[in-house]
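Example record

One chain of 149 residues, shown exactly as stored in the release files.
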Amino acid sequence: MTDGPVSTSPAADAGGRAPADYAESVALPATTEAVPVIVSENDWWAARPAGSRLVGLVVARDDLPSVIAQRDALAGFGVPIEGFRHPAPETGETWSERLTRLFGRLTAGDVVVVADKHALGRTVDEETHAIAELRRRGIIVKVLGHSRG
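Predicted structure tokens for this chain:
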């Protein structure tokens, strides 16, 4: 036998109150035009955490836009390009070694910006691995274009 009221509702808390008994009421605007715009519908994808560092990644490969086109796309997004260095030619490093070097320069909260989704790998598996590893490290990826299928 219990001393207090017994609730048969599984949603009730330990005090026997249902969520509606203590929920806060919020008045919503009657029309969508009255809802304030926090980020415009055209710029929502450009949002990034306050204080985050934008890091542009440019890759020189035949199946990607030119280095200049990639650099211009990054600059258009707001990536600082002062001191821009052209990417090194193929040096004998594996893709994994290059990614490891990139990861060593990034910290959680950084935003890596690429002009094309294929800059993160030569194959879908490489791209998927790179994005998963960046995400695991707390790094955000912004992709500005998708040039091939």
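Notes: Strands lie at 54-57, 111-114, 140-143.
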